[in-house]
UniProtKB/TrEMBL annotation:
<dbReference type="Pfam" id="PF00583">
    <property type="entry name" value="Acetyltransf_1"/>
</dbReference>
<feature type="domain" description="N-acetyltransferase">
    <location>
        <begin position="1"/>
        <end position="83"/>
    </location>
</feature>
<dbReference type="GO" id="GO:0016747">
    <property type="term" value="F:acyltransferase activity, transferring groups other than amino-acyl groups"/>
</dbReference>
<protein>
    <recommendedName>
        <fullName>N-acetyltransferase domain-containing protein</fullName>
    </recommendedName>
</protein>
<dbReference type="InterPro" id="IPR016181">
    <property type="entry name" value="Acyl_CoA_acyltransferase"/>
</dbReference>
<dbReference type="InterPro" id="IPR000182">
    <property type="entry name" value="GNAT_dom"/>
</dbReference>
Length: 89
C-alpha cells in the first residue's frame, strides 16, 4: 500500500496484495486501516483510480467505504473524505 501526495492534504492510494492472500478480505481491511494512517499523516482526502474491469479492486475500495465519484469507460475514481476518521495509534 502506498500514498502518493498530490494536492494540499490529498494523496492517491494504491494497493497490491500478494497473490496467495487475495480474496480473503485483506485488501478491504488494509484500505480501512489506510484511512486511519492517512488521517494520522495529516491527509484530508484519499483518492484512487481503478480500472473499470478490476472488479476485486473496486469491491475492496467499496467495502472499505470509498465513494465512487467519477467513471469513464477506462477507470473509476474513488475517494474517501478523512474528516472524522480517527487517526491510527
Ligand atoms: C485489488 C486487491 C488489492 C484486492 O485485495 P483482496 O484482498 O483480494 O480484496 P478483498 O478480499 O478484501 O475483497 C475483494 C472483493 O472482490 C471480490 N473478488 C475477488 N476476486 C474477484 C473476482 N475475480 N471477480 C469478482 N470479484 C472478486 C471478493 O469476493 C471481494 O468482494 P466481496 O467481499 O463482496 O465478496 C488485490 O486483488 C490485488 O492486489 N490485486 C492486484 C493489484 C491491483 O489490482 N491493485 C489495485 C489497483 S489500485
Amino acid at each position: 500500500m502506498r500514498f502518493d501526495a498530490k494536492g494540499e492534504g490529498e494523496a492517491e492510494i494504491s494497493i497490491v496484495i500478494a497473490s496467495g492472500f487475495r480474496g480473503m478480505g485483506v485488501g478491504a481491511a488494509v484500505l480501512k486501516q489506510a484511512q486511519k494512517l492517512a488521517a494520522t499523516l495529516g491527509y484530508k482526502r484519499l483518492f484512487a483510480r481503478v480500472k473499470v474491469e478490476n472488479i476485486p479492486s473496486r469491491r475492496a475500495f467499496e467495502k472499505a467505504g470509498f465513494q465512487l465519484i467519477d467513471q469513464d469507460h477506462v477507470a473509476c475514481l474513488y475517494e474517501a473524505e478523512l474528516t472524522g476518521v480517527c487517526p491510527a495509534g
